[in-house]
Amino acid sequence: MFYIFLPVFVSSYADMNIQIYRKQFVLSSIQHLFASTYEAASDDLAISALVSYLNAAMPVDKHEDFDTAEVVRIVASLAERGRLVFVGDLVRLAE
Fold it and tell me: Looking at the 3D structure of the chain, how many domains does it have?
């Protein structure tokens, strides 16, 4: 088994108390999940799974947790712009 370690460059941390950074975090998280564990052609990502992932990825008690309503609003706005497909409570990357 081979492991490839990619360098991580962090110039600054996003302030997760600012809405635009929260929206960017949601989008980049969805893109990461479909690039790593979900198959874009066949898998759908449930909003509940996305909310759990987002909250688990942030430091405990450092930022306000994502709630389902906020994530639905963000995903819906990204879907309106053609970045995602949002049907029911399932998310897919736009083709």
Answer: 1
